[in-house]
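This part of the workshop introduces the protein records we will be handling. An example says more than a description, so a record of this kind follows.
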Amino acid sequence: MDEEHQREYGQYLHENKENKELDLRKIRMVSEAAESSWKMIQDSNNMEDLRHFLEQFPDSPYSMPARLKLKQLERKNQ
């Protein structure tokens, strides 16, 4: 098996290990940032706070409650 095939089939695991560790750290940091940001704004009635949160963390587990709360506030203000 030549080098290209070995890389493709994972024979050189050490090459990807460092990148995977960096990716996991980045995911953990983003997750922690989303959680702490949500805790700060979850009781807010400011629609801009919620919009900013959704812009910064669209894939967060907190994005659904943020969207629902934003819709509630928008209905109240109509």
Summary: The chain has four helices and no strands. Residues 3-76 form one domain. The first helix runs from residue 3 to 8.
